[in-house]
Amino acid sequence: MIKVNPALASIVCVTLACSVVSSCNNSGGEKATGVADTALSDAKRIDSLTSQKKKDIDFKFATLEANLPSPFDVVNDLYNYKAAFKKELLNPTGNAEKYVTAYKKETNFGVYGVDLAYINFYGQNQEMLSYYSTIQKLAQDLNLASVFDVYAERFKANSNNHDSVVAIVDNVFTATDAFLNKNDKYLVASHVIAGSIIEVNYLSLNLLKDIKRTPDNDKFFVKVFNENLALYHLINLFEKYTDKDSQALLAAMKDYRKSYDEVIKSAADLTPDNIDKAVKLINTLRNKLI
Q1: Secondary structure of 58-127 as H, E, C letters
Q2: What is the 3-state secondary structure (H, E, C) of the chain?
């Protein structure tokens, strides 16, 4: 049974309780008339889910968690270093109705969760309610409503109080952890965390373009570089999965890492020109999700 530590729980519960560039046309992809596969269990979507494979996945989860930045910390840094709020960077809530398969719902559950955290820190209350409702619907589709609904009313009642929202999120950590442990949600958790990590990198790099590097904010540039390293461990985890969606995302992440590493090898390489190149790369990867 998978053991989910606070780092992973924080990613998922940000998506549950608080937490690009343009609307994705998705032409030729999923169709609303298709049959959703959200009822499929992880075991049916993962070939040969043996005891050894479970142990391997558990180990790779632990490694990923140990190297995972908290979305709250990253978004808080963006806010503290005066990065502007840019609505156009968010994944439009209208895209959610296009997500028919379990994979699309799971990864964008992670994407929308990070967007909601970003919205919350910047006090965009009207946007927050819209994104909250979208995430709530995805939670229902993914059979996560039992965890989500416990805190839904408290979230709505306290959505204008930042400290209260953080406290609610803190409480949902344990509930999310228990849910994932009880239900062995290997693939669901992996897809959610992938969406979250990619969205964190996407927002950070896009917002970093407008921040002039100084001795006072140099630590933030280092943090952005280090958060991208989580993709190495995410790739290592996804190599254990054999379903077509995970394999396709794995290939896309590997392509991104290869190109990114050719441009940025250390935090010192986060120059304006290189950031522009990195933004184009992360935009391409993120567009495959949304």
Answers
A1: HHHHHHHHHCCCCHHHHHHHHHHCCCCCCHHHCCCHHHHHHCCCHHHHHHHHHHHHHHHHHHHHCCCHHH
A2: CCCCCHHHHHHHHHHHHCCCCCCCCCCCCCCCCCCCCCCCCHHHHCCCCCHHHHHHHHHHHHHHHHCCCCHHHHHHHHHHCCCCCCHHHCCCHHHHHHCCCHHHHHHHHHHHHHHHHHHHHCCCHHHHHHHHHHHHHHHHHCCCHHHHHHHHHHHHHCCCCHHHHHHHHHHHHHHHHHHHHHHCCHHHHHHHHHHHHHHHHHHHHHHHCCCCCCCCCHHHHHHHHHHHCHHHHHHHHHCCCCCHHHHHHHHHHHHHHHHHHHHCCCHHHCCHHHHHHHHHHHHHHHHHHC
Q: What is the mean pLDDT of residues 91-100?
A: 94
Provide the residue ranges of all domains of the chain, joining segments of one domain with +.
Answer: 6-21+48-289
Residue 252 confidence (pLDDT): 97
Mean pLDDT of all residues in 195-203: 90
What's the pTM? 0.80
Report yes or no: 266 and 225 within 8 Å, Cβ to Cβ.
yes
Cα separation, 12 vs 9, in Å, equals 5
pLDDT digits 0-9 by tens, 165-181: 655 655 554 455 556 55
pLDDT in tens, 255-268: 999 999 999 999 99
Q: Which of 4-8, 31-35, 60-64, 226-230 has the highest mean pLDDT?
A: 226-230
Q: Distance (Å, rounded) from C-alpha 97 to C-alpha 118?
A: 22
